[in-house]
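Q: Convert this sequence to structure tokens.
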Amino acid sequence: MSIENPVSIVTSNIGTGSMAVYFSPSNPSIIIKEDDTLVPAGTSLNITANRITTNVTTTLTSSTAYISAIAIITDAAGTGSTVTVQDKSATPLKLIDGLITTSVTTTPLNDNYQTPLKMNGGIDIVTAGVAAAAINIWINYYQ
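A:
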């Protein structure tokens, strides 16, 4: 996203990172940029780590959230098993749809989103299959 003719730039250090706030007269919304990631206004970062070993729906949150990163690893294979990450819409929007977890992975699926993705109504992790895999899943989201 480019900001046309920013007229005000405020920067400060936050822990080990930094934050910059830009204001554009052509678009009066404030955009917060933290370490090159856009952060939805009025939200804070939630960092989660889950180990799931059964076929179940795990709800991270039941309120609208914005996912910024996901990492998934299978450390015990299942039979016909999958994992889905979806929002809680009436017809869920699936960010990760039926990722196969029938073999052990030594390198995680790692997705980072510079612009966090909106998950309407919350975030569900759905594991399914004949025999469940054991997965480790990390999701960072703003809310």
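The chain has two domains: 8-35, 45-142.
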